[in-house]
Amino acid sequence: MTAAARTAWYTGTVVEARPETSSARRIVIDVPDWPGNDAGQHLDVRLTAPDGYQAQRSYSIASAGAGTRVELAVDELPDGEVSPFLVEDLAVGDKLELHGPLGGYFVWMPQAVTQDARPVQLIAGGSGVVPFLAMVRAHADAADPTPFRLLYAVRQPDDVFYRQELAKLAADGLQIDYVYSRTAPHDWPVPAGRITKEALAGFAIPASDKPRVYICGSTGFVELIAGWLIELGHDAGDIRTERFGGK
Amino acid sequence: MSFVTRGFSGRNRERDPRLPPGQTKVEDWPVLSAGPTPKIDTADWSFTVTTETGAQTHWSWDELRALGIEDITTDIHCVTHWSKLEMPWRGVPIDKILAGIPTHAKYVMAHSYGGYTTNVPLDELLNGQAWVAFEAEGVPLDPEHGGPARLLVPHLYFWKSAKWVNGLTLMDKDDPGFWEQAGYNLHGDPWKEERYW
C-alpha cells in the first residue's frame, strides 16, 4: 500500500462504542470511503463545536487491511479535550471527521509484501498497545509465518486492552509477555514492579536473531526500553518508535 | 466539508491568534522520534556542509558555536497538532554557517545522527529564519529533544527542525527526506496546514 497517495478527509459513523478499560473506550467507525490502512498507521480526528471551534488529535488505528470499519481504542486523558469527549460523550450513530490513513514508517506489512523473514518484537507500554493490535491482527489474518512476540507493560491487570482477543491470539500461538508495574494478578509468579533491563532481556527476542523491533508508549517508557535494547546489542536502525506525551 | 460534532463544545475556548489552524497549545514538550534517541558527546560532534559540487566544510562543537550564538524567542508547531508558544532558544544562525560558502543550490537536505533527513528550501533557512540550536528554555537541549544540537526552523512544522542535526547538503533539486517520503508534506507551512501529501 502507498498510504501517502490516499490520505484524505473522510466522514464516518460510529457503529460501536464500549468500555475497553476503566479509562478507555473502544470505538468502531464505519467509513464507507475508507481506503484501508496498513497495520500501525494512525488517523486524525477533528471535532467541531457549534461556533466553529475545532480540535484535532491523532489516534493509532487498532484495525488494519482493506475494510471500511476503522477501530480506535482511546484512553481518556484527565485534562484532555478530545479524549474525554470520545470516551464519555460520543454515541453510536454520531458522525466524525477523520483524516488518514497517516504515517508510513511505524507500520508492519506481511512477509509476502516485504520479503523480510526476520522476527518481529513488539513492545507496548499501556495504551501504546493499540497499533500492535492492528499488527497482530494483520499477522494472524495473513497467516504470516514471521515469528511475532509481544511484550505488554501495564500498571495492573484491569488496564489490559483487548484482553480476550489477546488471550485467543496467545492460545493460537502468539507469544505474549505481560509486565505489571503496580499490581499483578494474584497467581502471578513475580511481584509487580517496573520493568528492568534484565526482564527485558528475558522477554525480548535477542539481538542475535536480528529482530525488527517496534516500541510504542509514553516518552519515558520508549526512551527507557529503546536505550536498553541498544545496550543489549540491537541495531538502532532496527528499532521503530512511537511516543506520546512530553518530557 | 466540516460539520458540527454532536455534543462537542470544546474546553480550550480561548483561541490564541498565535495558533495556526488545527493546533492546540501545550505547556509540556511532547517528544516524537521515529527511533531510539542517539547519545552524542559534544567532543565527538561535528557539523558538515556539503555543496552541490561536493565541496565540504566541517566544524567542531566549539568551532560552530564560535560563529556566534543568538537568542531567539519563537513559537513552535508540531504536525501532531500541538504548539508551544514563546519558547526561548539559543543557537547559531544558518546565515553564519553558510556565509562564504559559494552555492547556486535552491534546496537543502538536513542530515542527523541516527540517519534522519528532512528537506527545506535554502531561502527558508536564511535571513534569520533558521538556526542550529543548542539550548531551549534556558538549558542545554535534552537528547530526547534533539540535543546536543538540532535544526530550528520554527516557521515550518517541527519535523523540519531535525533533531541531532550534523549537516546540511545543498541540492539543485528538491528531494524528500525521511517523513516526506512517508506521506508528509514537502514544505510544511503550519499556517497553510501543509501537513500531508
Explain what this protein looks like in three dimensions:
The complex is a heterodimer of chains A (247) and B (197). By secondary structure, chain A is an alpha/beta fold. Chain A has helices at 3-6, 83-89, 111-114, 130-141, 163-171, 197-203, 219-231; strands spanning 8-19, 24-30, 42-48, 54-60, 69-75, 95-102, 120-125, 148-154, 175-180, 212-218, 239-244. Chain A has two domains: 3-102, Beta Barrel (Elongation Factor Tu (Ef-tu), domain 3), CATH 2.40.30.10; 111-244, Nucleotide-binding domain of ferredoxin-NADP reductase (FNR) module (Rossmann fold, 3-Layer(aba) Sandwich). In chain A, the strands form two sheets. Chain A has a six-stranded antiparallel β-sheet with strand order 4-3-6-1-2-5. Chain A starts with a helix and ends with a strand. Chain B is mainly β. Chain B has a single domain (47-192), classed as Oxidoreductase, molybdopterin-binding domain (Sulfite Oxidase, Chain A, domain 2), CATH 3.90.420.10. Chain B has three helices and eleven strands. Chain B has helices at 61-65, 94-98, 178-181; strands at 24-25, 46-50, 56-60, 70-77, 82-93, 107-112, 117-121, 131-136, 139-140, 150-152, 165-171. In chain B, the strands form two sheets. In chain B, strands 1, 4, 5, 8, 9 and 10 form a six-stranded mixed β-sheet that branches. Chain B has a five-stranded mixed β-sheet with strand order 3-2-11-6-7. In chain B, a hairpin with a 5-residue loop joins strand 2 (46-50) and strand 3. Classes of the chains: A alpha/beta (247), B mainly beta (197). At the A-B interface, helix 1, strand 3, strand 4, strand 6 and helix 7 of A face helix 3 of B.
What's the name of the CATH homologous superfamily of the largest domain in chain A?
Nucleotide-binding domain of ferredoxin-NADP reductase (FNR) module
- CATH fold-level name of the largest domain in chain A: Rossmann fold
Range of helix content of chain B = under 10%
Distance between the termini of chain A: 34 Å
Number of spatially distinct domains of chain A: 2
Global structural class of chain A:
alpha/beta
How many strand units of chain B? Answer: 11
CATH class of the largest domain in chain A: Alpha Beta
Strand proportion of chain B, as a percent range, falls in 25-35%
Biggest sheet layout of chain B? 6 strands, mixed
Mean pLDDT of chain A: 95
Give the structural class of chain B. mainly beta
| Helix-strand string of chain B | EEEHEEHEEEEEEH
Total strands of chain A: the figure is 11
Q: Mind telling me which CATH architecture of chain B this is?
A: Alpha-Beta Complex
Largest sheet of chain A: 6 strands, antiparallel
Q: Write down the Rg of chain B.
A: 17 Å
Looking at how many chains there are and whether they match, the oligomeric state comes to heterodimer
Helix content of chain A: 10-25%
Number of domains of chain B: 1
